[in-house]
Known about the structure:
Layout (H helix, E strand, L loop, with lengths): L15 E20 L2 E16 L5 E8 L12 H18 L5 H8 L6 H18 L4 H5 L5 E3 L1 E4 L5 H14 L3 E5 L6 H11 L5 E4 L9 H5 L9 E2 L7 H10 L4 E3 L6 H9 L5 E4 L7 H14 L3 E3 L6 H10 L33 E3 L12 H7 E6 L1
Parallel strand pairs: 5-6, 6-7, 7-8, 8-9, 9-10, 10-11
Antiparallel strand pairs: 1-2, 1-13, 2-3, 4-12
Helix pairs in contact: 1-2, 1-3, 2-3, 5-6
Amino acid sequence: MSNAPSNAPSNAPTFTLGAIELRRIALALVAPFRTSFGVETDRDILLVRVELIGSDGAVTEGWGECVALAEPTYSPEYVDGAQHVMLSHLIPAVRNAGQIDAAGATRAMAHFHGHPMAKGAIEMAILDAQLRATGTSFADFLGATRLTVPSGVSVGIHDTVDSLLTTVQGYMDDGYVRIKLKIEPGSDIEHVAAVRELIGPDTPLQVDANTAYRRTDGAHLARLDAYDLLLIEQPLPEADIIGHAQLAAEVETPICLDESLVSTSGTADAIALGACEIANIKPGRVGGYLEAVRIHDLCVSVGIPVWCGGMLETGIGRAANAVLASLPGFTLPGDISASTRFYAQDIVTDPITIHDGHVTVPRSPGLGFDIDQSFLDRITTAAISA
Ligand code: SMG
Ligand code: MG
């Protein structure tokens, strides 16, 4: 178990909210990333910068990253919508709450339905500032002790098996310890078979369908059992928990949920129904790092393995994810690849790198990154005070 803050008001020092700025930045991906729901080529990312004022009057800055994509294709949220709900609803509610810390800010936003990625980004910025103000690393805050975490890479759908194998070989050469293949009907069995042949029996391999299959695809997906996969991630639509339970009974490979898991209680239900044999935990999808830790703790208590998902984060989100993934229940490698897997240049001064297939867990005060302010300013497309 971690020291995860619960829903109860914490004894942590509280702060007054100073300036808040929303920043939109434009970053090109080093290569297109194709999933069953679309192709990403350029990111339009929403960042949150907050200033917290301590009881002694000291002002500390913190940053959060909203993981909403430009379009509502992965989940209902999208970047313009996240910006709107922050400006019109979430930030005013947090300001109205008076003295706050990260958990208090999250409580102040709780009466609004949905929008976990927008809420999570605000919580994240406040948590970063709060930890910096008290000189605490996120790892110490969580009670996480592992110094490194294994690094997995997510590989997009390729038009041909040959091009897929070239890409996967490149990641093997980089040292990634686990390969995840995006799949969809028509780009699945043959692709998985070829990659398994290339990487051999010992390299962990898993697949992610991003909801591309239907309940009737059980027999087809059971053909993946021949390739010794760690898991099949989110084969069915996010609301189809019963369908995932049926599939879990039909297919030997463990079923892992991503899009379906948006809260601790929903995760508990999915597990109880037999729909979730492994959990992908993404802080943005569940409303922030504090809820992510609660889901981790739940999964540990019921013996469900977890791993940390990714949303193509910059060095802000990736640093915090690396810390989260160092909690003891994260027993499978996460989508915590090097910054260079997606970006030629990152917005932090010490981007995530991999050594011997592992990422070093950051231990500096705050969530574990420092902003490269001049690069950030160069790629800023809008800055809005809130
Ligand atoms: O951040 O390394 C990463 C990408 C991991 O595959 C990844 N994310 O469904 O798990 C997922 C996807 C969501 C984003 S696809 C644009
Ligand atoms: Mg996924």
